[in-house]
Amino acid sequence: MSGRQTGRPTLETVAARAGVGRGTVSQAINGSHRVSDRTREAAGRAIAELGYAPDRAARSPAGRPTDAIALVVPETEARLWAEPYFLDIIRGVSSELGAADKQLLLTLVRTEQERRRFEQYLAAQRVDGVLLVSVHRDDPLPDRVRALGLPAVLNGRRSPQEPTAYVDTDNVRAARSAVEHLAGRGRCRIATITGPLDMDAAYGRLVGYRHALAAAGLPADERLVAGGDFTEDGGRRAMRELLGRCPDLDAVFAASDVMAVGALAVLRARGLDVPGDIALVGVDDSPVARLLDPPLTTVRQPVEEMGRAMAGLLLRQIAGEDVAPSRLVLPTELVVRRSS
Questions:
Q1: How far is it, in rounded angstroms, from Cα 327 to Cα 255?
Q2: In whole angstroms, how large is the CA radius of gyration of the chain?
Q3: Within the chain, which residues score under 70 in pLDDT?
Q4: How many CB atoms lie within 10 A of CB 162?
Q5: What are phi and psi of 153, to 5 degrees?
Q6: pLDDT of residue 52
């Protein structure tokens, strides 16, 4: 909901902006596998830029079901369509909602003004429920959604006391398995690149890292901890910081594959061999993990399954089933490749 135009966008205007046909945009929205990734990304950018909402969602009389579900992502268009994690979440959500004949309304909320505008949209009863991705500890939107009486499900909790239903993975165990693997390979100066620590997923992975070090009898050295932001640039900055502080480190656990990509670029630029000099492990098992040279050891998250589970849980809430509060934590799996 960008607010950058006065007229309400239609499927035709989205198609014109994306440079594709109306039917192709419809297929992209509904997660059709017949649409290429490039076309899906172009359609997604056009939807975000124009603030497109399906007709059923915008025209439903107050108090009646709209058959529309809002998926809220507090990220820029560029990051949304560049990172496999978000695309897999959207694919899973879209698949589940499509099977239930529900419309998906993708909404980017990046500023306080956009958040207020979105709250007004919700107050007009234009959606039946809300899915929220990438929430931070101080994000007030889940509480505002609940205050409006709308069903809501988060992708990851804000804290262990989260009152809103959520679907997550075992982030502590994910990090422990990665660091235990590195320690088992004889690495003893294991660094980590964290995500933003105001996100529970990032904090949980830092806790798991520390637990694994203690279990392996390795000392906890805060110089081996560098903050990142789940972006490739963040991984680059953190890797430079770690090498500057601890040039004798022999392994790195990056809290996401995307940050591991940035870290690998820095290691290569310094003439360091992976895994000969420094072993590297990420989290997500995104497509990029398999395409790197060397292929990246990583912790697989069932991201698309999380999207389906979020949508399924929300649909049960909307149907009035007794699911509140529901907390679903999915397992992870270490995938060993040549980077470690």
A1: 22
A2: 21
A3: 1-8, 29-33, 48, 51-64, 323-325
A4: 17
A5: -140, 135
A6: 63
Q: Which residue's structure tokens are 């496999």?
A: 84
CA distances (Å), 252 to each of 34, 50, 194, in order?
38, 41, 11
The sign of the torsion formed by the CA atoms of 119, 54, 12, 28 equals positive
What is the model's pLDDT at position 111?
84
- Cα–Cα nearest to 232, from 205, 193, 254, 260: 260
Of 255, 190, 252, the closest CA to residue 216 belongs to 190
Return d(Cα 180, Cα 108) in angstroms, integer: 37
DSSP string, 172-229: HHHHHHHHHHHHHTT--SEEEEE--TTSHHHHHHHHHHHHHHHHTT----GGGEEE--
pLDDT of 123 reads 83
Residues 126, 81: Cα–Cα separation, whole Å? 25
211 φ/ψ angles, rounded to the nearest 5 degrees: -60, -40
Residues 6 or more apart whose CB falls under 8 angstroms from that of 215 comprise 176, 180
- Helix (H/G/I), strand (E/B), else coil: 236: helix
Question: In this structure, what are the phi and psi dihedrals at residue 324, rounded to the nearest 5 degrees?
Answer: -105, 140
Q: Which amino acid is at 47?
A: I
Task: State the alpha helices, DSSP H only, in the chain.
Answer: 11-18, 22-29, 37-50, 55-59, 77-82, 84-99, 112-123, 141-147, 171-184, 200-215, 232-245, 257-269, 287-291, 303-318
CA–CA gap between residue 222 and residue 208 (Å, rounded): 15
CA–CA separation, 15 vs 5, rounded Å?
16
Q: How far apart are CA 239 and CA 276, in angstroms?
A: 17
Cβ-contact 174, 337 below 8 angstroms: no
CA 37 to chain centroid, in Å, comes to 18
- Residue 301 identity: Q
**129-162 pLDDT, tens digit each:** 999 998 999 888 998 898 888 999 999 999 988 9
Identify the pLDDT of residue 77: 80
